[in-house]
Amino acid sequence: LAFLTLTTDFGTKDGFVGTMRGVIWKICPQVQIADISHEIGPQNVLEGAIALWRAYPFFPDGTVHVAVVDPGVGTERRAIAARLGAQYFVAPDNGLLTPMIEDAEAKGQPVEFVNLTNPKYWLPNVSHTFHGRDIFSPVGAWLANGTALSELGPTITDVVRRPLPKPEKTATGYHAQITVVDAFGNCTTNLPAAVAQGVKKISFTLKGRQVDDLVTSYGHRSPGDIVALVDSESFVEIAVVNGSAANALGVKVGDPVEVTVEF
Amino acid sequence: LAFLTLTTDFGTKDGFVGTMRGVIWKICPQVQIADISHEIGPQNVLEGAIALWRAYPFFPDGTVHVAVVDPGVGTERRAIAARLGAQYFVAPDNGLLTPMIEDAEAKGQPVEFVNLTNPKYWLPNVSHTFHGRDIFSPVGAWLANGTALSELGPTITDVVRRPLPKPEKTATGYHAQITVVDAFGNCTTNLPAAVAQGVKKISFTLKGRQVDDLVTSYGHRSPGDIVALVDSESFVEIAVVNGSAANALGVKVGDPVEVTVEF
Amino acid sequence: LAFLTLTTDFGTKDGFVGTMRGVIWKICPQVQIADISHEIGPQNVLEGAIALWRAYPFFPDGTVHVAVVDPGVGTERRAIAARLGAQYFVAPDNGLLTPMIEDAEAKGQPVEFVNLTNPKYWLPNVSHTFHGRDIFSPVGAWLANGTALSELGPTITDVVRRPLPKPEKTATGYHAQITVVDAFGNCTTNLPAAVAQGVKKISFTLKGRQVDDLVTSYGHRSPGDIVALVDSESFVEIAVVNGSAANALGVKVGDPVEVTVEF
Predict the structure, then answer these.
(1) Between A and C, how many residue pairs show a Cβ–Cβ distance under 8 A?
(2) How far apart are the C-alpha atoms of A143 and A140, rounded to whole Å?
């Protein structure tokens, strides 16, 4: 059995994602395919990178992740495949894989890239506007079939990187920012929850609103309360109990969060 | 082959559901997974219960249904697994399984519950905010693998129930209500269509609008007509032919429907 | 292994599509199922036809395509199955399969239709409002299992056709129209890009706005530019680079596009 995931900004209305499954099945009929998201904002590479980053650690070794958020489709931007740790990735070379690369590097795991130049692993006819169908899906399916990375094109090392914003240390704590607003309206920051360990007091100011301390989970406060807590990837998240922090506070991705810490 | 379904209020934008598939595949690689809905209203346990209730009878014996609408995640609310008839269910203990329990009881089928206390069947690290990933998905996958219910934790009998509203008998008929507004704007009631059998006349009043008789299907009246008919689960539904009754009449879930019957 | 696709106007909120998977698995447990789209506009047969038409060529031989956009459900409209080329189709007889039929005819491939009259291949109880679940899904699953078309009902030849609008030749070029507005806001026309081959100059007027020439892909112009290009199915498409032509110009499906050609 082989495993493959899809992360795109294609939406689900137009059949693009269904078409990719057809392409993949022709090459690797028995593969299990999961959709990570197809509602990444159009051309929003960073949003796509974060969505895949939160999901990929939970997949089996050998899973192939096909990610297509591709403002440069049809231009000279490269298409790449990567082995990062025990998993495989196929994407345009525009920074979409950066957080997964950083993870593998931080852990001292294998990091290999190839430039997808071998048309043997593409569809016979390649359009200028839908490489998700014509290049990324078939390459992903061949990888799921066990094709070696080296078959797909020459090794490269200079892939485009687009690191996620990191929190900055300030005199009284950190200058952080919102990285994800999820469907519930929960607002995740780029601040690792580990910074709160052993502190006497921690508070977060977002959109002029101060939130003190970290609660354990939503249900420990009353509906409507604004809380800070540790999200499921161990970052600090601002939420409204049984409500939407995004709506209540007007938060969007990129908004600053001032963090004050007392030791 | 094993079968598993997912019903959540997670949306499909953020990758939560894809992540759950990864978790499940690591434990039960060959399982077939169906999404029932991920667009249940946030924390709307009743809506989740109804969506799963309409779908589950059509699945093969042995299917595992993982349902996560979970306002109490991270609190002391229990997590449970159940055998109801020939199918399995995994959910927070908040009433989400009530209509399936009532079905099995009404049919005299097996009804068994366990409290999910055995961490052997969870992910090694359990977050406070995403038990869909950390507890419910792995437990569902182990059940799909054939793990016995009794392995997962001790038997319990006092699960939380949250029965669907039932229609009330009135002097001239029934006081019913809207239970589902679907994507077409069709409005299903909690009135079993069987009550219309053998009656001389039946009419429905909803939002000040009276609808007489039951038609066989949408196409038997003209586009734009408001009709009452028997829905696909044998309840009475109010619809607009080739249109949206929800929009035309401003109907939402919970709205009252007065039913007048003449014998 | 067997392959099956689903194209409907059911949405994904209400569990209808999940239910269809359950029905299919009971009959053909090992089938791979892809969603083409469930966001076809309610009762919009033409939109459903186009979505399936763009996707089906990329699926393996023997794939069964179940398509349900069915304003006539529960009336006397027929339900049909078809072999078109090397693939199978199941749908209401309302024109939904027309572009696939025309493709097969144009290529001289097999074209066979049967009227679905044999209840042996349906669910035991057939509702008046959800033939997607009760007739089309089980028939599709039986076809995926290898059941012969002739088992499903008698051969017919007079299926309903609803051809896509074709561009009209004018004195100076073509009168074309918009056939698809995708999730990016890209606007595809019914004009085959082949008409631009060898011309000295080509321009497109849409909503009072003139767009000259065809560019190779989005990334060859600046963000915000309105461009015409060849889409992934070799039709002319009007797009805004990294933006939405639909929003920028207020375009919707059916809008006229005047094409001027100089030789």
Answers:
(1) 107
(2) 5
* Distance of alpha carbon A30 from alpha carbon B5, whole angstroms: 20
Tell me the residue type at A239: A
Alpha-carbon span B191 to B257, nearest angstrom: 9
Residue among A50, A69, A66, A56 nearest A177 (CA): A50
Q: Is A22 at the interface with chain C, CB within 8 A?
A: yes
Whole-angstrom distance, CA of residue B89 vs CA of residue C116: 35
Nearest to B41 by CA among B11, B86, B78: B11
CB B128 within 8 A of CB A231: no
Name the packing angle between helices A45-55 and A98-106 (round to 10°): 40
| Residue numbers in B near A234 (CB within 8 A) | 127
Nearest CA in chain B to C29: B1
Closest CB to A54 among B11, B19, B30: B19
ipTM surpasses cut 0.95: yes
Residues from chain B that touch A220, judged by Cβ atoms under 8 A, are 74-75
User: pLDDT digits over A109-164, tens only?
Assistant: 999 999 999 999 999 999 999 999 999 999 999 999 999 999 999 999 999 999 99
Full-prediction pTM beyond 0.90? yes
The DSSP code for C163 is: P
What are the b/e assignments for C189-228, b being 16+ CB within 10 Å? Answer: bbbbbebbeeeeebbbebbeeebeebbebbbbbeeeebbb
